[in-house]
Design goal:
By secondary structure, this protein is an all-alpha fold. The protein contains five helices and no strands.
């Protein structure tokens, strides 16, 4: 696949350069909000704040690559600044697996919500188009009836 080819344009269709930057800013904002709202001992409550932000970003971002990158960044910020301190990343066994699972489920909820919204929008478009075509057909049949 060459950079200017048709396949490359189709592969990058719908990708906004600001999507990843906006998602990263949302993750940093969610990290600040979770740290401000809940004390250090309330890790599950902090995880909920980050998971809601991940789900919201997954709903809004059009490209799945950006969605997964934002989820990964959310996990790193959560582990580094909300579970530990000073950005220290660590693996805590079962707790870390549960944190990853919660963020993965939040990501999938956002992706499914985006898919449902797109399907409903397509259905509304198809219904409106079908109605317009039926009206045009009725006008053509009503105006020129054979004798």
């Amino acid at each position: 696949m060459t950079p200017g080819s048709r396949e490359a344009r189709r592969f990058d269709a719908g990708r906004s350069p600001l999507g990843l930057a906006g998602g990263a800013a949302a993750m940093v904002g969610a990290t600040f909000a979770a740290a401000a709202l809940f004390p250090a001992g309330q890790v599950p409550a902090r995880l909920v704040v980050v998971a809601v932000a991940v789900s919201a970003c997954s709903t809004v971002l059009a490209d799945k690559r950006d969605t997964f990158a934002v989820t990964g960044l959310g996990y790193l910020l959560f582990t580094g600044f909300l579970v530990n301190s000073y950005g220290e990343l660590s693996w805590d066994g079962a707790n870390t697996v549960w944190h990853l699972l919660v963020l993965a489920v939040a990501t999938m909820i956002g992706i499914v919500q985006r898919w449902i919204r797109a399907a409903l929008a397509d259905l509304e478009f198809e219904t409106a188009l079908r109605q317009l075509l039926d009206e045009a057909e009725d006008e053509n049949n009503g105006g020129s009836t054979p004798e």
